[in-house]
Design goal:
The chain is an alpha+beta fold and 439 residues long. It has helices at residues 3-26, 28-58, 71-106, 125-131, 150-157, 197-233, 238-270, 281-296, 316-332, 379-384, 391-400, 432-438, and strands spanning 110-114, 120-123, 167-170, 176-184, 188-195, 277-279, 301-305, 310-314, 339-347, 350-357, 405-411, 415-423, 427-429. The protein has four domains: 2-89, no CATH class; 107-195, 2-Layer Sandwich (Beta-Lactamase), CATH 3.30.450; 200-270, Signal transduction histidine kinase, dimerisation/phosphotransfer (DHp) domain (Helix Hairpins), CATH 1.10.287.130; 277-438, Histidine kinase-like ATPase, C-terminal domain (Heat Shock Protein 90, 2-Layer Sandwich), CATH 3.30.565. It has twelve helices and 13 strands. The radius of gyration is 44 Å and the shape is elongated. The structure holds adenosine-5'-diphosphate (ADP).
Length: 439
């Protein structure tokens, strides 16, 4: 029996006894009057508390449970405790929900929660940007009205299939997303949108690269096999055999050069950051000019302009290979009688090495693609001069590893200038002995 019940019965009993006693002393009328008054007071007490409770229940504001007196105190205190526990539970749930949304917001992928009718319940900023949704205004709207691509509508309609493959969808700002619908709860859907633009680009580059390498190696190999067949099948005089062997050697060296360049590129791409050693510029420029002279065989005028007041900080083989590739290109793409100039410049903002030539030049539309692997403006000229189409890709990578950049300016028919620029952080003041000699 609850306290309220017990106390009410006890109060009634007290009123009845008091009424009976008064009835005996002062007459039955007085006795009944007391009983009626007592019962009325008890009823009023309960009605007042019930009314307060009903008022609160109509608008159950947290922390505003009415207070009670007597036996109602116990009831209302229990209700107050219950209400507080409920509010705490609600708060915990709200915190957990907020936490979950924050986690979904932090995800790099787009997330959209859809209800049973495929209307948006919530979406994170990434999904909003990719699918051009408004995270507030679009809540409650069917997603099919907002993302109207027919492929997406079909995918949405067939989403119930277990393990359905993600849908490739062109989304905002020229990007591509992989869309996946994952059922959860009663009949809700989780829509995940992953940006796969970069992954697709890398995959295309990988495919192109494999195709290019195969093609580049197949051409000399086909020629080589052709010569070998000829030498084997035909009775050739020794001079012809010598001629053919020379041509076969040429094709084999071409394949060798391509493989060497591919290996050099792969080392540049995967090696740890370059050594931070002093790369002495003055002797390097001298050596490069001598190498260019040897490659030119006296057909060009080679000169050096500018003097170094700093050295570079980095890996000498990589710097020398980058500069050497620029020089060898200048010699190879400049007709006999032309000029090739090596220039060095340094100052507070950094240092630069450039190679200028008076050669064939490059049309502007080719400039942005020159550092792509196997990209050539004139395929036959590149081959004739022993090019692999990988030289400038090697230059770009070697410079990037030293925070350097390649700038190209060119005028078709008049010549080109390739400049490697390094930030001041990559320069070192000359050592005392060298700087005294440089003065
Ligand atoms: P390649 O081995 O074919 O020379 P590179 O990567 O070194 O390959 O150069 C890419 C292309 O850029 C060359 O095929 C050529 O068309 C062009 N190129 C590079 N350097 C010069 C230059 N100094 N003058 C004119 N064209 C150049």
């Amino acid at each position: 029996m609850t306290a309220l019940y017990r106390r009410t019965l006890a109060a009634l009993a007290v009123v009845a006894v008091a009424g009976a006693v008064l009835g005996l002393i002062a007459g039955a009328a007085w006795g009944w009057a007391l009983v009626a008054f007592g019962a009325g007071a008890l009823l009023a007490y309960h009605v007042v508390h019930l009314a307060r409770l009903a008022r609160w229940l109509a608008q159950p504001l947290p922390g505003k449970v009415p207070e009670g007196r007597g036996s109602w105190d116990e009831v209302l205190t229990a209700l107050h405790r219950y209400e507080r526990a409920g509010a705490a539970r609600e708060q915990q749930l709200a915190d957990a929900l907020r936490q979950l949304r924050r986690a979904a917001q932090a995800m790099p992928d787009g997330v959209v929660l859809l209800d049973a009718k495929n209307s948006i319940e919530w979406c994170n900023d990434q999904a909003a940007a990719m699918l051009e949704l408004d995270p507030r205004a679009d809540v409650g709207r069917p997603i099919a009205n907002l993302v109207r691509e027919p492929a997406f509508i079909d995918y949405l309609a067939s989403h119930a299939e277990e393990g359905a493959r993600p849908l490739r969808l062109a989304v905002a700002h020229g990007r591509v997303a992989a869309i996946q619908l994952i059922p959860y709860g009663e009949a809700q859907m989780l829509l995940l949108a992953r940006d796969i633009t970069q992954a697709e680009r890398v995959e295309t580059m990988r495919r192109d690269f494999v195709a290019n390498v195969s093609h580049e190696l197949r051409t000399p190999l086909t020629v080589l096999v052709g010569f070998l067949e000829t030498v084997r099948e035909l009775k050739l005089d020794p001079q012809r055999v010598r001629d053919y062997s020379g041509m076969m050697r040429e094709q084999a060296s071409r394949m060798h050069r391509i493989i060497e360049d591919l290996l050099a590129l792969s080392v540049l791409e995967s090696a740890p950051p370059p050594a931070a050693e002093r790369v002495r510029i003055a002797p390097l420029l001298e050596r490069l000019a001598a190498d260019a002279g040897a490659l030119s065989g006296g057909r060009h005028t080679i000169s050096v302009r500018g003097r170094s007041h700093v050295d570079l900080l980095g890996a000498e083989p990589e710097i020398a290979s980058a500069f050497g590739n620029l020089l060898s290109n200048a010699v190879r793409y400049t007709p006999a009688g032309g000029r090739v100039t090596l220039a060095w410049d340094d100052g507070p903002e950094g240092a630069s090495f450039s190679v200028e030539d008076t050669g064939v030049g490059i049309a502007p539309e080719h400039l942005p693609r020159l550092t792509e692997r196997f990209y050539r403006v004139d395929r036959s000229r590149s081959r004739e001069t022993g090019g692999t189409g990988l030289g400038l890709a090697i230059v770009k990578h070697a410079l990037a590893r030293h925070q350097g950049q390649l700038e190209i300016t060119s005028t078709p028919g008049s010549g080109s200038r390739f400049t490697a620029r390094f930030p001041a952080s990559r320069t070192l003041p000359l050592e005392a002995a060298t700087s005294a000699a440089a003065e």
